[in-house]
Amino acid sequence: MKTPAKILVFRQSSLGDVILTLPVLKELALNFPEAAIDFLTKKQYAPIVEFNTAVRNTIVFGNNAEFRGTLKQIRRGKYDLIIDLQRNFRSLALSILSPGSRKIGYRKRRLAREMIIRKPSLNLSVDHTINSYFHTLRRLGIKSELTPPELALPAEAKEFAEKFVADSFPNSQSTIIALCPGAKHYEKKWPHGNFRKVAELLLEDKTTALIIISSETDTFPENIGLSDSRAVAVRDFEILHVAALLSCCRIALTNDSGLMHLANAVGIKVAAIFGPTSPRLGFSPTLPGSVIISNNVFCSPCSLHGEKPCRQPQKYCFENIESRRVVDIINKML
Question: How far is CA 20 from the centre of its chain?
């Protein structure tokens, strides 16, 4: 094909999915160094790509009304190539209303994922989402292996995190661990009381400090019930500030969530708890040294993103994931 001069990449959401597009941007810049690469996403996820050296412009929208106006801006851009890594009604509209552009799209593997959810006992799996994104690039002659995302942090965010850590932990604790008890969907959340027990066990080591990261949509207390000065709660910070704080930690304990991918993207290993979802659905952590904590029970996964309520008499997928077991895993990782 003719080498594209202007490329538009579309991935509107969610946090983890946008983070997993970063290896795609890197490959596009390596293979088309003269091309102008723009990225279209929702406003809240724009910081993930706006400091990326591969990206010329980040185009954002907040709602459907804004997206309609954005389409006019895109048509004026006259892109040679549009790469759709979302495959939804908005990306379909983008394709239809951008005549003259070549379009290639990501295969979402809906049927395969549905089979994994309907028949978890068959132990089926799909390839990692990053590899599926890379498969899209094969039509451009680009062949790549799975690589972890790398998030570009601006100097301001790094300076913020350094000051925050210095102010929060004046006794210079040598080991800072991030606890991330939240997730977009309630069912994916390992009970915050279990996170508190993990925190209490970790704090028995006087050289350990904790940063507890959550958002306003989380219903548990910011400090998950702790009153120790070595456990500092962070709620609703800007996403790049959160990323920079994660980069100051040795390890992050997370659910299957966007923060799991964010930690990996700043070079931090995760201990990731999977309950109603499964790494077999293509969303596992990618950074070497990260650990998946899962019971692999007969009824898991029961949904793609943890959006469906548990159908069992009790939540077997979390039942045997005990706090002491998690702490032992973290200590081995350290």
Answer: 7
The pLDDT tens digits for 123-172 are 999 999 999 999 999 999 999 999 999 999 999 999 999 999 999 999 87
- Rounded CA-CA distance 177/171 in Å is 15
Q: Output the average pLDDT for the chain.
A: 95
Q: How far apart are CA 60 and CA 8, in angstroms?
A: 12
pLDDT tens for each residue of 266-312? 999 999 999 999 999 999 999 999 999 999 999 999 999 999 999 99
Provide the 10 A C-beta neighbour count for residue 97: 13
CATH number of the domain where residue 191 is located: 3.40.50.2000
- Model pTM? 0.96
Q: What is the number of structural domains in the chain?
A: 2
Domain membership flag for residue 148: no
Same domain for 313 and 168? yes
Would the pLDDT of 1 be above 80?
Answer: no
d(CA 86, CA 196): 36
11: which 2 tokens? 């991935």
| Contact of 61 with 43, CB cutoff 8 Å | yes
Radius of gyration of the chain (CA): 21
Closest among 109, 74, 112, 110 to 90, alpha carbons compared: 74
Residue 84 contacts residue 108 (beta carbons within 8 Å):
no
* Residue 265 CB burial class (10 angstroms; 0-12, 13-18, ≥19): buried
Cα 190 to Cα 318: distance, rounded to the nearest angstrom:
7
Distance separating alpha carbons of residues 6 and 25, to the nearest angstrom = 13
192 and 135, same structural domain?
no
Question: Measured between alpha carbons, how far apart are the two ends of the chain, in Å?
Answer: 48
